[in-house]
From TrEMBL, chain A:
<dbReference type="InterPro" id="IPR015879">
    <property type="entry name" value="Ring_hydroxy_dOase_asu_C_dom"/>
</dbReference>
<dbReference type="Pfam" id="PF00848">
    <property type="entry name" value="Ring_hydroxyl_A"/>
</dbReference>
<dbReference type="Pfam" id="PF00355">
    <property type="entry name" value="Rieske"/>
</dbReference>
<keyword id="KW-0223">Dioxygenase</keyword>
<dbReference type="GO" id="GO:0051213">
    <property type="term" value="F:dioxygenase activity"/>
</dbReference>
<feature type="domain" description="Rieske">
    <location>
        <begin position="47"/>
        <end position="122"/>
    </location>
</feature>
<protein>
    <submittedName>
        <fullName>Ethylbenzene dioxygenase alpha subunit</fullName>
        <ecNumber>1.14.12.-</ecNumber>
    </submittedName>
</protein>
<dbReference type="GO" id="GO:0051537">
    <property type="term" value="F:2 iron, 2 sulfur cluster binding"/>
</dbReference>
<dbReference type="GO" id="GO:0005506">
    <property type="term" value="F:iron ion binding"/>
</dbReference>
TrEMBL record, chain B:
<dbReference type="InterPro" id="IPR032710">
    <property type="entry name" value="NTF2-like_dom_sf"/>
</dbReference>
<dbReference type="GO" id="GO:0019380">
    <property type="term" value="P:3-phenylpropionate catabolic process"/>
</dbReference>
<dbReference type="InterPro" id="IPR000391">
    <property type="entry name" value="Rng_hydr_dOase-bsu"/>
</dbReference>
<keyword id="KW-0560">Oxidoreductase</keyword>
<protein>
    <submittedName>
        <fullName>3-phenylpropionate/trans-cinnamate dioxygenase beta subunit</fullName>
        <ecNumber>1.14.12.19</ecNumber>
    </submittedName>
</protein>
<dbReference type="Pfam" id="PF00866">
    <property type="entry name" value="Ring_hydroxyl_B"/>
</dbReference>
<comment type="similarity">
    <text>Belongs to the bacterial ring-hydroxylating dioxygenase beta subunit family.</text>
</comment>
<keyword id="KW-0223">Dioxygenase</keyword>
<dbReference type="GO" id="GO:0008695">
    <property type="term" value="F:3-phenylpropionate dioxygenase activity"/>
</dbReference>
């Protein structure tokens, strides 16, 4: 047996066979593969950077990362949003150390170069030391990213000037996203700040868990489920009426019973609220989507955002090296909810999927130990099994995407790694396959879809 | 509730409350959760709020629905957490983690009522997990304790964690 080390331009198709249903463990710890992910995935994808509600007024800003690159996201006087590198063009120091706030200027700690909230260089300490011709202010601002765009409150940015529009990037996944972003008039907002924690795990383990791993819930979260539900174990899954749907590496796994996740949230008032607005939701999004919302479900947006519709935790897995990520979590609610319901949702999220939550506490160590143990020099050459439900693909009249029947399935995970492989393989973005062929086409608003989809 | 400053606080009270804090830490370290629950008042309010880094000069208003909380628990919720830990289904705690709590900087600062005291303390938690990794967390706590006969009961605890990024994958422990 030969244990090879990976070169700079390997054939990544060697690391998986998704028709057969296996992955090579090296993609979860290899430093070279990780570096390539930063270049080929994080530097080329649309990446979530903020929710509009976090920076409502001119001068509001927050700091975050795109891949491992530190960025500032700032609201401009004209209402637009700019995203720029949080690194000074003088020597590269970090320009803003606050998590969030409101300001007119970012001033670098090292030599006092000062930038406005658009990133333009406005002046510096002892400006007289620069003679005419030493510095062109116009070219020495904070570098802005290539594109910024919003979808129903979620702000995305990309370093990639050739990236397709955000609408095209999300594609038919918008049909699913609208269940959380647009299930009620007024849209959504983030409330109550951001919790950050660091885990010694590969970022993909977080994403793949939320994209499709309903399977782990009944076992991993047995204790949490029993404590939240008077000793009852996880409810049985209806394999006939639950699905995996995958679009361009994004994925949503869900039931159609409409209440499972709302029960797990453990806040009866929130359940009442959604039951009250459900008929309206059905008018707005169609019968099918109103029944999917609130059921046992989880989802991820490629490459590194996840959420639980109904439970309202929203999160991002920020890569920090091959074997570490920083998890950022927020609470997402409908803007038009009364304050006491928002409060109830927040409590419910913290009690279930906050870092001290009865469910969250069970997950982290699994991902950490999958990562560290997979790295063993011999262990890493063994394959991992991703074949669950591989024969259950269906065509569905209503559901867009690559659809599999049965919530316990590895289908969305396979879809995620297929997109990973596509991005690691294709240099030319325009040649990247769309999986599957889009149904929505240029429909701007999934609410206006032909009856077929609104069913 | 207006706090009357306490100077100097009665020595017996300081001793009794300090003993209660140490006893509480020992019970939790030994996973004697029922013993710990017995030290809580039935109206216990147990909270840990989120901290974020802001510029000192930043005067922008606080968040609309209050700061985020990591814990906001009453007695029922704390019992539920204990039930979970005792359920025998918590795989991440089996074999058990080793947790040791050191309590220090105990300062009895006020006496809001005849039989109540407000107490500051500092907690250092050393956590050695089943996979061998060790994490150390520190927190400041402001408590309200109430003397009931011979016993002191914890009525309220506000926990401030000294980490803007949690250095661990979860907070599977009481502070
Ligand atoms: S590094 Fe920022 S001013 Fe010199
Ligand atoms: Fe989980």
């Amino acid at each position: 047996m030969r244990f090879e080390r990976i070169g700079r331009e390997p054939d990544y198709s060697r690391y998986m066979d998704l028709k057969e249903g296996w992955l090579d463990r090296r993609i979860f710890s290899d430093a070279d593969i990780y570096e390539e992910e930063l270049y080929r995935i994080f530097a080329r994808s649309w990446l979530f950077v903020a929710h509009e509600s976090q920076i409502p007024k001119a001068g509001d800003f927050l700091t975050t990362h795109m891949g491992e690159d530190a960025v500032i996201v700032a609201r401009q006087a004209d209402g637009s949003i700019r995203v720029m590198l949080n690194s000074c063009p003088h020597r590269g120091n970090k320009v803003c150390f606050a998590d969030a706030g409101n300001t007119r200027r970012f001033v670098c700690n090292y030599h006092g170069w000062a930038f406005d909230t658009a990133g333009d260089l406005k002046g510096m300490h002892e400006e007289y030391c620069y003679d005419d011709g030493d510095i062109d202010f116009k070219n020495h601002g904070l570098k802005n990213v290539a594109k910024v765009s919003s979808y129903k409150g979620l702000v995305f940015a990309t370093f990639n000037g050739d990236a397709p529009s955000l609408e095209a990037w999300l594609g038919d996944f918008r049909w699913y996203l609208d269940m959380i972003l647009d299930n009620e008039e007024g849209g959504t907002e983030f409330i109550g700040g951001c919790i950050k924690s660091v885990m010694s795990a590969n970022w993909k383990f977080g994403v793949e868990n939320f994209i499709g791993d309903a399977y782990h819930a009944g076992w991993t979260h047995d204790s949490g489920c029993r404590s939240m539900n008077d000793g009852m174990p996880f409810p049985p899954i209806d394999m006939e009426n639950s699905y995996h749907a995958s679009v361009n590496g994004h994925g949503w796994e869900f039931g159609t019973e409409g209440v499972g996740d709302l029960v797990l949230l453990g806040r009866p008032k929130v359940m009442d609220y959604y039951n009250k607005i459900r008929p309206k939701m059905a008018e707005r999004l169609g019968e099918m989507r109103s029944k999917i919302f609130g059921s046992v479900a989880s989802a991820s947006i490629f490459p590194n955002v996840s959420f639980l519709p109904g439970i309202s935790t929203f999160r991002q897995w920020q890569p920090k090296g091959p074997m570490q990520f920083e998890l950022k979590t927020w609470v997402i609610v409908n803007k038009n909810m009364p304050d006491d319901i928002k409060e109830e949702v927040t409590k419910g999220v913290m009690q279930t999927f906050g870092p001290g939550g009865t469910f969250e506490m069970d997950d982290g160590e699994n991902w950490e130990n999958c990562t560290t143990v997979n790295r063993g020099v011999v262990t890493r050459h063994e394959r991992l099994h991703y074949r669950c439900g591989i024969g259950r693909q269906i065509e569905h009249d209503t559901l867009p995407g690559i659809v599999y029947r049965g919530q316990y399935n590895d289908a969305n995970q396979r879809g995620f790694y297929q997109r990973w492989l596509d991005m690691m393989t294709h240099d030319d973005f325009s040649k990247m396959p769309t999986r599957p062929e889009p149904r929505l086409g240029n429909v701007a608003e999934t609410r206006d879809l032909p009856g077929l989809f609104a069913l | 509730m207006l706090d009357r400053p306490l100077s100097p606080p009665p020595v017996e009270v300081i001793v009794a409350v300090t003993q209660a804090l140490h006893c509480e830490a020992r019970l939790l370290d030994n996973e004697d959760f029922d013993g710990w629950l017995a030290m809580l008042d039935e109206d216990i309010c147990y909270r840990m709020e989120l901290k974020s880094r802001r510029f000192r000069a930043d005067r922008s208003p606080p968040l609309p629905v209050g700061p985020g909380v990591i814990f906001n628990e009453d007695l029922g919720r704390l019992k539920l957490r204990v039930d979970r830990l005792k359920s025998g289904f918590v795989w991440a705690e089996d074999p058990p983690n080793f947790i040791r709590r050191a309590i220090s900087n105990v300062e009895v600062v006020a006496r809001p009522a005849e039989n109540e005291v407000r107490v500051h303390s500092v907690l250092i938690m050393h956590r050695n997990r089943i996979d061998g990794t060790t994490r150390v967390l520190t927190a400041a706590r402001t408590d309200l304790w109430r003397g009931e006969g011979q016993a002191w009961l914890l009525v309220a605890r506000d926990i401030v964690l000294d980490h803007s990024v949690l250095p661990d994958s979860n907070l599977n422990a009481f502070f």
